[in-house]
Amino acid sequence: MLYAILCYAHEETVFAWTKEEEAAVMEKLYAVQEPLAKAGKLGPVGRLMPTTAATTVRKGRDEALVIDGPFAETKEALLGFYVVDFDTLDEAVAFSKQLSSVNPGSTSYEIRPFYVFRPGDAAS
C-alpha cells in the first residue's frame, strides 16, 4: 500500500538552520531513507518552500479566489512529504518514528494511505 507521510514542523526553526545544521540533519535523514530506497519502496521525497512562497486557490460557491500564502494559520507548517510503499501501517509508523528520532526539535508526521489516480511523469 502506498502511504504519504506528511512532515510538519515549526517553519521558522527549520529555515533558520545554518548550512552545517541542515547538512547534519539531511545526512541523518538519508541514512534512515537509504534502506527503503535500496528496497525500491521509497518514492518521491520533497521539502516544500516556505509558506511565504505559497499561493492558495480557494473556491466556495462562487468563482475561485487566489490568496497569497497558505490557507491555514498554524504554528506547525507542512514542510515536506514522503511517498512510501509498505505492506502495513505499522511499517509506516516505524519509519516515521525513525525520521522523528533524527529530526531535531518538534516535528509531527501524518501518515495517510493513498492510491494513484494518474502516475504522471513530471519527476522523471
Describe the structure.
Helix content is 31%, strand content 33%. The protein has 124 residues and is α+β, with helices and mostly antiparallel strands. It has a single domain (2-114), classed as Dimeric alpha+beta barrel (Alpha-Beta Plaits). It has a 4-stranded antiparallel β-sheet with strand order 2-5-1-6. A hairpin with a 6-residue loop joins β3 (55-58) and β4 (65-68). It is globular, with a radius of gyration of 16 Å. The two termini are 21 Å apart. The model has no long low-confidence stretch (mean pLDDT 89).
List the helices and strands and how they pair.
Layout: E1 2-10, H1 11-14, H2 19-38, E2 42-47, E3 55-58, E4 65-68, E5 76-85, H3 89-102, E6 107-114
Antiparallel strand pairs: 1-5, 1-6, 2-5, 3-4
Family: Belongs to the YciI family.
Domain YCII-related: 1-114
Q: What would a concise description of this structure say?
A:
With 124 residues, the chain is α+β, with helices and mostly antiparallel strands. The chain has helices at residues 11-14, 19-38, 89-102, and strands spanning 2-10, 42-47, 55-58, 65-68, 76-85, 107-114. The chain has a 4-stranded antiparallel sheet.
Cα distance, first to last residue?
21 Å
By CATH, the superfamily comes out as Dimeric alpha+beta barrel
User: Structural class of the secondary structure composition?
Assistant: alpha+beta
Rg (CA only): 16 Å
- The name of the CATH topology is Alpha-Beta Plaits
Helix count, per DSSP? 3
**How much β-strand is present in the residues?**
25-35%
Order of strands, widest sheet: 2-5-1-6
CATH class: Alpha Beta
- Estimated helix fraction: 25-40%
Overall mean confidence score, pLDDT: 89
The number of domains is 1
Main β sheet profile: 4 strands, antiparallel
CATH architecture: 2-Layer Sandwich
Morphology call: globular
Note the run of SSEs as H and E.
Answer: EHHEEEEHE
Sequence stretches where pLDDT stays below 50 over 5 or more residues: none
- SS elements, strand count: 6
Family: Belongs to the YciI family.
Domain YCII-related: 1-114
